[in-house]
């Protein structure tokens, strides 16, 4: 079998190199190995890419990798693994719900991911939720041989923007999250997550793509070849962060966004564009004409219209979208009616106030730079960041500034505005309500008396 020499050393090397440096010596509790060869056309430090044929069964070996004495609480117990096929591309992740709905509409009755149960070994109670086409789960005993065969039915080119043939397909990820039981016997305690990048082709297409990649590599000079990884016979899934539990929530922070940095050094120029954590674009939660009455009910709950869910319980997405503004106001009253109508039409609301801010330390550094270069100061280019305010309160401004500096809002103790003769005026809600739209401020920061917090002054 392809997996027989899974323990060949180069594969472990490949896995190590793609982990962050602090994990270099960390042995993960489990290892998952997909029995399909990696592409030879992958640069040395890039993540591996594996080609699969649509609908073909591929083995994933579930290996217990624990050191002696590690995680003794799962000895003799089952664990639960959830498999997902998700988008690799950030842009598609933000519209995943709509992408999958569109797929369901075009391929009625089909699933994105299936387990080939007759071929699999050691899996217990496999389940596939009919509403989650891209997810399957099962229980398994880490002490016994476990192999699960999966089939992926969606093709990478089904999600490309233009559909004129010959375009590159989008990469997907196969992600596995494994959980142990909590004290109530529910499998909710996260143990380990790993994933790998795949592309899916029409039957036999993966073999053709592998062959053309190989031929392309053979034409390269030996010097060029050194920049590429060899093709490994199997694909080791590398550690990743767990899949966020609640999907499609309007204000869920993106899984990678960490707001609890303990220190923020102004001198290091958080104001420069490359240090700035981009807030994730809002995840559109538009109701689709293809939504079933049950999905329309879920959408009403998610968007705070639960009070009207009984009234609309037999309405599909298409029924709700056909309602006119007058219909909705008549059913729900003026306040909720207008809100529901706007939500149905997916209206983007303009912020009530926009202000632009720039860090003083950034400005000073730019000025010094210009002096050293002997240039005129007038040509200095300052980086400003836009802050959009909806509620026009001091609390909201504090939160937005904390996000800008990647610190928690507790670390900002007071915000002042520099007044006449250089006095510091404490910012109040009323003052913010009287800011002119598109005002510009330079931010100065002062260490507060307490050790870890700051005062911010708007000049």
UniProtKB/TrEMBL annotation:
<dbReference type="GO" id="GO:0005634">
    <property type="term" value="C:nucleus"/>
</dbReference>
<dbReference type="Pfam" id="PF04516">
    <property type="entry name" value="CP2"/>
</dbReference>
<protein>
    <submittedName>
        <fullName>Transcription factor CP2</fullName>
    </submittedName>
</protein>
<dbReference type="GO" id="GO:0001228">
    <property type="term" value="F:DNA-binding transcription activator activity, RNA polymerase II-specific"/>
</dbReference>
<dbReference type="InterPro" id="IPR007604">
    <property type="entry name" value="CP2"/>
</dbReference>
<keyword id="KW-0805">Transcription regulation</keyword>
<dbReference type="InterPro" id="IPR041418">
    <property type="entry name" value="SAM_3"/>
</dbReference>
<feature type="compositionally biased region" description="Basic and acidic residues">
    <location>
        <begin position="204"/>
        <end position="228"/>
    </location>
</feature>
<feature type="region of interest" description="Disordered">
    <location>
        <begin position="201"/>
        <end position="231"/>
    </location>
</feature>
<keyword id="KW-0539">Nucleus</keyword>
<dbReference type="InterPro" id="IPR040167">
    <property type="entry name" value="TF_CP2-like"/>
</dbReference>
<dbReference type="Pfam" id="PF25416">
    <property type="entry name" value="GRHL1_C"/>
</dbReference>
<dbReference type="Pfam" id="PF18016">
    <property type="entry name" value="SAM_3"/>
</dbReference>
<feature type="region of interest" description="Disordered">
    <location>
        <begin position="259"/>
        <end position="290"/>
    </location>
</feature>
<dbReference type="GO" id="GO:0000978">
    <property type="term" value="F:RNA polymerase II cis-regulatory region sequence-specific DNA binding"/>
</dbReference>
<keyword id="KW-0804">Transcription</keyword>
<dbReference type="InterPro" id="IPR013761">
    <property type="entry name" value="SAM/pointed_sf"/>
</dbReference>
<comment type="similarity">
    <text>Belongs to the grh/CP2 family. CP2 subfamily.</text>
</comment>
<feature type="domain" description="Grh/CP2 DB">
    <location>
        <begin position="24"/>
        <end position="263"/>
    </location>
</feature>
<keyword id="KW-0238">DNA-binding</keyword>
<dbReference type="InterPro" id="IPR057520">
    <property type="entry name" value="GRHL1/CP2_C"/>
</dbReference>
């Amino acid at each position: 079998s392809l997996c027989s020499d899974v323990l060949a050393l180069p594969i472990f090397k490949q896995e190590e190199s793609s982990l962050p440096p602090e994990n270099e010596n960390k042995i993960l509790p489990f290892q998952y190995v997909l029995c399909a060869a990696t592409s030879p056309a992958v640069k040395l430090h890039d993540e591996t890419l594996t080609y699969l044929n649509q609908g073909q069964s591929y083995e994933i070996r579930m290996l217990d990798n624990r050191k002696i004495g590690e995680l003794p609480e799962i000895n003799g117990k089952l664990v639960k693994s959830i498999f997902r096929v998700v988008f690799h591309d950030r842009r598609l992740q933000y519209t995943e719900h709509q992408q999958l709905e569109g797929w369901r509409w075009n391929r009625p009755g089909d699933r994105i991911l299936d387990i080939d149960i007759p071929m699999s070994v050691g899996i217990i109670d496999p389940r596939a939720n009919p509403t989650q086409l891209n997810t399957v789960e099962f229980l398994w005993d880490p002490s016994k041989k476990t192999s699960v065969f999966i089939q992926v039915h969606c093709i990478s080119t089904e999600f490309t923007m233009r559909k004129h043939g010959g375009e590159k397909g989008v990469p997907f990820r196969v992600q596995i999250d494994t959980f142990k039981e909590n004290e109530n016997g529910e499998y909710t305690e996260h143990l380990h997550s790993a994933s790998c990048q795949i592309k899916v082709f029409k039957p036999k297409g993966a073999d053709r793509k592998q062959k053309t990649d190989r031929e392309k590599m053979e034409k390269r000079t030996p010097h060029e070849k050194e920049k590429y990884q060899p093709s490994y016979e199997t694909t080791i899934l590398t550690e990743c962060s767990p899949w966020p539990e609640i999907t499609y929530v309007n204000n869920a922070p993106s899984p990678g966004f960490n707001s609890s940095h303990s220190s923020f050094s102004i001198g290091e120029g958080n104001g420069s564009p490359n240090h700035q954590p981009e807030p994730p674009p809002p995840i559109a939660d538009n109701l689709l004409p293809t939504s079933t009455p049950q999905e329309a009910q879920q959408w009403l709950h998610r968007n705070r219209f639960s009070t009207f869910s009984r009234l609309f319980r037999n309405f599909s997405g298409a029924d709700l979208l056909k309602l006119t503004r007058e219909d909705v106001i008549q059913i729900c009253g003026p306040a909720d009616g207008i809100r529901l109508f706007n939500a149905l039409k997916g209206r983007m609301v303009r912020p009530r106030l926009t202000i632009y801010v720039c860090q003083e330390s950034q400005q000073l550094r730019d000025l010094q730079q210009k002096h050293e270069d002997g240039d005129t100061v007038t040509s200095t280019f300052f980086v400003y960041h836009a802050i959009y305010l909806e509620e026009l309160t001091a609390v909201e401004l504090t939160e937005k500034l904390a996000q800008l500096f990647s610190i928690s809002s507790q670390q900002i103790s007071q915000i002042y505005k520099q007044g006449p003769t250089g006095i510091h005026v404490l910012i109040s809600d009323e003052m913010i309500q009287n800011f002119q739209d598109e005002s510009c401020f330079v931010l100065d920061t002062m260490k507060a008396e307490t050790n870890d917090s700051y005062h911010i002054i708007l000049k």
